[in-house]
Amino acid sequence: MSSSHETGKKSTVPKFASFKPKAQDTSIDKSGRAEHDIAQPSDAHVHRRIPVEINATAPRHSSRVSRIPQQQQHQHPERKLDGDVLYCLDKRGDALIIRYGSNDRGRIPEYRRIGAGRILGVDGFMKIEKLGSREEFFIRNYHESGSLLSSDKKSLLARGIRPDSQPIRIRRRLSEADAATGDYLSFKTSKKRKRDDGVSEESSSDEGPSYRSIYGKSKRHEHSDSDEEYADDSSEDISHRSKSDPIAIRSIELSRKVRQHPEDIEFWFELVDHQDTLLDLQSGARAPTAAEVKSFADIKLSLLEQALSHNTSDRHRERLNLKIIEEGLKVWELKVALKKLAEMMQKYPDSFELWKLYMSFLQTTLSAYRYDEVKRLYTDKLQSLGKNIFSLSTPADQIECSEQIIYVFLRLTRFLADAGFAELASAAWQASLELNLARPPTLPEIGWEIPPSFQDYWESEVPRLGEDDWRGWSAFAADVANQEPPDPRVSNPLIPPNTRDGYKAWHTAEHYRSQNAITPARTLDEGAEDDPFRVVMFSDFQDILLYFPTELVSHLRPQLLDAFLIFCRLPPSLQNSNILNVVAKDSFLVCSTQDVPFKHLSRNSVDSSEEQQTKPPEFSFEVQQMSLTPEVLFPSKQWFGYLGQVRDKIPPDNYRWVATTLKQLTRGIGCGGLSPYALAFESINQPGNEKKSAKALLKQYPFDVDLYLGYSILERERGNKAAARNVLSAALGLPSISARDRVRLGIGAAWLELIDGDLSKASLQLCRLVEEGPKSDTTQIPEPTEASPSQILKAKQILVTNRDYTISSGDIVQAVIYAEGLVLLEYLTQQSEAETSSRKQGDISSAISRITQFSEDLVTRDLQYSPSHERFLQSSARLLYYHASHGSFRPGLLREQLTQYLSYFPSNTIFLSLFAWREERLSINDRVRSLLQDHVLTRANESPSSHVFAISYELLTGNAHSTRAAFERALSASSVCAHHVGLWIAYIRFCHARKELRAKAKPVFYRAIQACPWAKGVFMEAFGTLVREMDSAELKSVYSTMCEKGLRIHVDMDEFVDKWRKEQKGVDRERGSKSRKR
Q1: Would you say 596 and 930 are in contact if contact means Cβ atoms under 8 Å apart?
Q2: What are the distances in angstroms from CA 1076 to CA 217, 1070, 1071?
Q3: Number of neighbouring beta carbons within 10 Å of residue 1044
Q4: Which of 685, 702, 925, 1075 could form a disulfide with 647 if both were Cys (CB 3.0 to 4.6 A apart)?
Q5: Helices in 616-674 by DSSP H: which ranges?
Q6: pLDDT per residue as tens digits for the range 4-44
Q7: DSSP secondary-structure letter at 114?
Q8: CA-to-CA distance for 418 and 783, rounded, in angstroms?
Q9: What span, in angstroms and rounded, lies between the C-alpha atoms of 269 and 304?
């Protein structure tokens, strides 16, 4: 065919000066290539490259061209432009550009970009990078420095083009005929194609093998002129590659399920949630970028819309629409988002989750936030839910609605306090606690409306809850004439700050006024007439008060008390599961007692290996999560503490109000469940008076075993071990003490001896107290000597029997108590010698066997995530720490156990701190960071306490950049801490305190006010931490934004700054005149 072509019609090479297209020849339209006009380069060098490019690209698209007769192909004329024409207008375009992703390189003049790919006229975030033989346009993120491809796998695209990986191009699957001749080798000689010929027959074969490579005979999928590999699109190969990838297998399974059962929304939700796993896989250890979050949100929206089209149930459609709104807020513009939210709120007015999403969006969007509007929405929701209680028929529905009301009220009061209206929030809690816990007994039920007598009580300004000489609403209603308002308060004058900067001086004055405005003032108090918000009238908060029906108050008391403690920035006391599950991951409510949830931010302190081996673990964190037990509630130098010292961290008036309220709730109102918490709070903040307080509480609540255990711990910490034994003896002498409480007291008595390293005395205490109770006349615990084998056997049998019986009957709380006693007894008495031990150490191997046995039993009963299981594992962790701190131990044993505990409770601060205690911090394989990244801080397990621990760990062991990365991950848009006020303030101060990061402090501040526009404390960082970094125009802009958004301002800044500057000038003139006189 080639020879016939040579002897036939001679093809002519078109001349540039005389080229004229033949209009009658239109055969090229059938060849698969669109007809178009292309400017031919006149450069000879470029012209010589054209045949090479045609030869290189011909195998990809010549299968259709090869079916056209060769002579017809050579008759195709080419358009030629005049030499003076620099460009032409192509109205059709080249289909091959779309097919191959770029222009024909042979037809583009050679050039070189100036500025390393930067684009003229724009900032450095836009750049053109060269990817192989192509040039691509990139938009870098704000935190990406340098090239996109050199920023440590900043995106999926960068990951795909790393030197150790190649893109995959799906190749057409071969037919059976092609597969049969795949190994055929032709021995025919092929003649070279002339340069002036068209596409030859040899080059038009379907990607035949090339033998011109310098690497010898090429194999399949290697004959490519680009950086891409070819892959067969057969399902067998994909399945083979996916067998070792569990995430890919999960994707295939979920996709198949939604295809087979499109009406099942659970499969759709699983597939949507699986996209988060893919996002985490792509982002790795860093926080996902905004572009990545939006990209995956678009995918989720597409899946949810498909699911919505297959479901007609109203309940299912409501859930799907809620998820659509949640993901759409990440993508939509503000106007679109507000419109969608308004439509959904009108469509589902009773959806509480939709309302929470709506409020969170309005409260955290700077352009949409307004104080008055957000407060109005909170108030309307409280009123609608309050009236809805009386229309519900079942008590369960009423309790559920009441818990929603408590949550809304807690969110509202914390919002008010963060915005600067702390007096209004404190007054709302004072009134609500009295309305529900200290109401007069003969008060008639009048629905959700507040009784008129309470208005008289409030406006009389007699002492209120949390104030000295408080008698309450009931006493006022019974005898109005005998109650008088307290004497007017006189505030301490402000000490003028020693600075010439007017903005810094204003910050000091504003901070001072805010610290003295925590509780509402009386009309006669000093300074009340200058600030109208200082005095809270009944009309100011009557629409936001709580007033539940009397029959529901006893059920709601634990939730109310815990919500009050959370409002006061204290950890909850009664551990109510309903409110804890909501609050644990709510960044609006999880707060530390001070502005910053860290002890130090100025520098990282890395201990040496010797100091690390002797230093105890970190026992206290500002934000932590653990199960509440007497061992963690009452302070101890050798174990974790649930409460921290707050007296020096909060304003004096605020501390006085909180401490007095706790005392009045326990001793005046009769909230007995709060008594151990109140005793622990007082012993930490006012040590020395705990003995008197403990006796008063024990006299009022004589059957509270937690009080006895806590008081014994306090006496032991004071060094009075005999008094601690006497406290437990008094508890054992109670007439109606149960077997469960006897075991708890026995465990406490055993730990009294075990802390001193006396194992024999500890085992005797435990064995005696699990037997039959002592008589009333012999309740004094004798001096222990040693337990006999029969006592040990009997005690073990009692513990095993009661443990198995209670767990089989479903009483997990009691089963955990007996299991704790059995684990401790095994540790004290067994001698398996599986692990090395010293004189002060017991048999940790036998104890771990008991721990594992009981824990696996709970797992089989689907109770692995129950609070009782967490309490059991905490007691086991305490035993592990005692063993590790009193002699030699195997670090791997401690690591294995704590890893197992963290698999059930990844946010537990005790397990995290103990895990990081003895790990090598300078090793290449950092197990702590790996655990945090792979398990603790994943999307399903993350919590504010986990992020606080991760940042604290980097502050302790890492450097400035690793700590900054931990902050960025915690405050990313997809994190649960994205709107945590304390973390944003800490991040600003951290960047400002580090010299290498000081330039980033101001950008972080602007990000913070966008994430927390309702928080006055974030805005005030501009006038405190960053006052020297910002000019006057920026400070005035921040102040005007605070006023525009409705935040509370005590002192007008413009007037104060002008007055301060005038005073400073007068001082300077006075000093100058004095110096001249001298």
Answers
A1: no
A2: 98, 10, 9
A3: 11
A4: 685
A5: 630-633, 652-664
A6: 444 444 445 554 444 445 444 444 444 444 443 433 444 43
A7: S
A8: 55
A9: 8
